Amino acid sequence: MDLPIVAPVMPAYAHPGDAGADLVSTIGIRLEPGQRALVPTGVRIALPDGYAGFVVPRSGLAAKHGITIVNAPGTIDAGYRGEIRVALLNTDREAAYEVAAGDRIAQLIIAPVARARFIPVDDLDGSVRGDGGFGSSGYAAEKTNEESSR
């Protein structure tokens, strides 16, 4: 897919078949433990209708340094033409993290999206899962009632 873009550094796919293209910071910034910051990338894109961009964390930054994205995934709507900025968060409790200009800070995934037409109804059709939500599929080791009440 051809995508119109304005960028000081083009997003790049690290490997063939990668879903996400790396976004880089245009500034240097120090993230103290627990601190978040909106980090500019300089990237502006023109997505066609029917597509959205999703800004997601880089797995290496998350695993090695606890750097993630506050609103992951960040959603870029087709009509948005402003700069993509990344809301980075340092989840490490002890160590600060230095971001230098040019560092890869996030990945951009472009994907087709469907628009729903919401139809009001009085009730929904049943399903195997039903209304089971958080934790409804169980745990590796189920807790007893005694353990749960502690």
Throw out a few tags for this protein.
2 helices, 4-stranded antiparallel β-sheet, globular, mainly beta, 150 residues, 31% strand, single chain
Description of the structure:
The structure is a single chain. This protein is mainly β and about 150 residues long. Helices cover about 5% and strands about 30% of the residues. It has two helices and eleven strands. It has helices spanning about 60-65, 145-150; strands spanning about 5, 20-25, 30, 35-40, 45, 50-55, 65-70, 75, 85-90, 95-100, 105-110. Strands 2-11-6-8 form a four-stranded antiparallel sheet, with no helix packed on it. The protein has a three-stranded antiparallel sheet with strand order 4-9-7.
- Give the helix level as a range of percent: under 10%
Give the helix tally: 2
Instruction: Give Rg in angstroms.
Output: 20 Å
Output mean pLDDT.
Answer: 92
> How do the strands line up in the largest sheet?
2-11-6-8
> What structural category characterises the helix and strand content?
mainly beta
The amount of beta strand, in percent, is 25-35%
H/E series: EEEEEEHEEEEEH
State the separation between the terminal residues, measured CA to CA: 55 Å
Total number of beta strands: 11
Q: What composes the largest sheet?
A: 4 strands, antiparallel
Envelope shape: globular
The poorly predicted ranges are: none
